[in-house]
Amino acid sequence: MEFDWAPVYETARPSIFSVTLIPSNESRAELTSLAMRIAGTVGGLTQDQRDNKIDYALRTMKCVTGFSVGAVVQGQGIAILTCAHGLSEFFKGTDPITPEQINRLFTVRVTCRHNENGFYAAGGDLMNGRRNFTLGRVARIDYSRDLMLVVINRAHLRMHGGAVCNEDHPSMLICPGDPDPATSECLMVSCPRLKADLMSLGRISTRRTTAQLNTVNAVGFNFEILEVQMVGGHGSSGAPLINREGQVIGLLHGGDSSHSYFVGVQHLRAFLLQQGPH
Q: What is the C-alpha to C-alpha distance for residues 177 and 187, in angstroms, rounded to an integer?
């Protein structure tokens, strides 16, 4: 009998956020220096290609998906887990930048699916309409595992129109064990830019390490990957991979035309158990 994923999807939707990091114009000189330092370490590029890479990094918003993993600051904040690689033009594992630098050099904007769906319902212009965003801050980052924790003030989270969003944004449950690749069907829910509540279904095909991927690993990622027969949209990076029990078993790192690659759940558990500022 085919499994009904609808209840799992509906339960996950309120926990999903869109996270955007925007380079600060006031910090352009420092951002340029960081981007030049990283671009200079990438082999096989001409000077024009390096210049184009730097220009792209400085003028492009970094849009990713995140999901709620807990309340912080006496319940007045929401902790959102997402990926770190949206900032990879500015760091390497051996040459990191701190959360304090990120918060100074970038504006971190967050919106929930209630806000986005309200925007659609009001007939907002999908490409050019004005949205309401909540300012967040980066609290913690792990470059080698491609993980980043963003925190927002719950009272500042807005609906379309400016009212405070009083809807629930429950913390997602992190799976306490490891999924079995032989039997694991799974669901991904993401919020890429301009497309809230995107759902993808797939099946885990195998486990790999980042060293086994046929990609350039200039950042220095080092973690176990779940390879899933699934394709996500641009901006879905950071989205949760969910099992039938509604538990998170991975976080979207990247992919190609036929498969997606997720940070293994053991890395999520370890990251969230770390003691650090929220």
A: 17
CA within 13 Å, CB half, 179:
33
Q: What angle do CA 78, 92, 270 make, to 5 degrees?
A: 45
DSSP three-state, residue 137: strand
| Domain shared by 143 and 37, yes or no | yes
- Alpha-carbon distance of 134 to 152, in angstroms, equals 7
In a domain, 125, yes or no: yes
Under the banding of pLDDT at 50, 70 and 90, the label for residue 214 is low
Which segments of the chain does DSSP mark as H helices, in order? 6-12, 28-39, 47-59, 99-105, 113-121, 265-273
- For residue 52, give the DSSP letter: H
190 and 260 together in one domain: yes
SS3 90: coil
How many domains is the chain built from? 2
Query: Final residue of a domain: which of 156, 184, 208?
Result: 156
- Tell me the mean pLDDT in the region 47-65: 79
Domain presence at residue 121: yes
Whether residues 149 and 20 share a domain: the answer is: yes
User: Would you say 228 and 205 are in contact if contact means Cβ atoms under 8 Å apart?
Assistant: yes
DSSP state of 219: S
Let me know how long the chain is. Answer: 278
CB atoms within 10 A of CB 48: 8
What does the pLDDT read at residue 163?
84
What's the predicted TM-score (pTM) here? 0.90
What CATH number should be reported for the domain holding residue 101? 2.40.10.10
HSE of 246, CA atoms in CB hemisphere, 13 A: 15
